[in-house]
Amino acid sequence: MNIWAVLLAAGKSSRLQSRGQIQKKQFLNYQGLPLFWHSIQTFARNPQVNGLVAAFPEKELQQSRKEVRALQVERDPGIPLICVAGGGLRQESVSKAMQALPPECTHVLVHDAARPFFSPRLITSLIQEFSSGVGGVIPGIECKDTIKELDGDLVLKTLSRDSLSAVQTPQFFSLQALRDAHQQALKQDFTATDDASMLEKCGYRVKIIPGEEKNIKITTSEDLQVLGSQEKAPLPCTGLGYDVHCYGGDRSMILGGQPIPGAPGIQAHSDGDVLVHALVDAILGCLGMGDIGDFFPDTDPANENLSSMVFLSEVLAMAQAEKLELVHIDITIIAQKPKIGPHKASIRSNLAGVTGINPGRINIKAPTEEGLGFTGKGQGIKALALVSALRHKREMIH
Prior knowledge:
Blueprint: E1 3-8, H1 14-17, E2 29-30, E3 33-34, H2 35-44, E4 49-56, H3 61-75, E5 81-85, H4 90-99, E6 107-112, H5 120-128, E7 136-142, E8 147-151, E9 154-159, E10 165-167, E11 171-174, H6 175-188, H7 195-201, E12 206-210, H8 225-228, E13 235-251, E14 254-255, E15 258-259, H9 274-287, H10 292-295, H11 308-321, E16 324-334, H12 344-355, E17 362-365, H13 373-376, E18 380-391
Parallel strand pairs: 1-4, 1-6, 4-5, 7-12, 16-17
Antiparallel strand pairs: 2-3, 6-11, 7-10, 7-11, 8-9, 13-18, 14-15, 16-18
Helix pairs in contact: 6-7, 9-11
């Protein structure tokens, strides 16, 4: 699969503007960043997403492009970003975004910018549940309230909650199926509130998986309260991570998501990325939540051969939920061989893209041990990671 994301940020925010909110919700400030940028960061933290196309209001496209470029300089997400003009309807924005996708793209995630709280793990679940027998996979949560069908202000009947689900985004599709559905909608002149319903109407099967309760959509003025809390006096904290792997295994060496050609093979259960393992432990140290083995044990078959970047993405989602802001990363890789220097820039770029931290605040050191000890004798590799962070006060969401 070659997967890209489509971010819909071209809405008019009609309901909020009718209540006196002038600025469109996708541009509202949240934790010092526009709302749409939080979704971009989340997509970038999933290693399976290769790039993103964002659809903005046509009249604000030029300004939006300037803002995106400025954010890329300060917080480069590490994936290609393409900005296009959206349309008057949601499905028009999706169609225009699809036109900007690269030829190699085969699958697409479609997401509303007004849902900034979804996790990288949800993206992984959508992709994993996709199969050749369906056109798409979508997240949904159970309906907690009783739902009634109306005729004006009169109740026609009460619907069974057992067969109902409240659907969310992102939604994951085969690009071919999504394009076909949009073409049929254009020919038959019908509209839909989401892309999944378009596929359903065109005869495609759509699978639903558990969504996330926190993945709310900012729609009404009451929802703005979620964005309104101002956090004061964040608590500084540090976390130290350490990991070691033996040479002589069948895993090709990967450091910080960067393959190291010609390096010794690694003995490991996952992909053996010693740097990322140490970094995960350091972040968990800031959170006071144990170590990597507590969440991703090597006794779990599901973790075998798994990219360590998936571990990092999930721990970063945990950090976001706990309002932990990473501000600096200091990495030390200890190995007699191979030479790490030629790969430092690529490793730093990978870590910046996943964490959202400015590359200037990520340091990588690679000393040897002058032939002494386990690593000095060329028997393995060690990594230490020191993370500096700010722990913001957690607010209850009502």
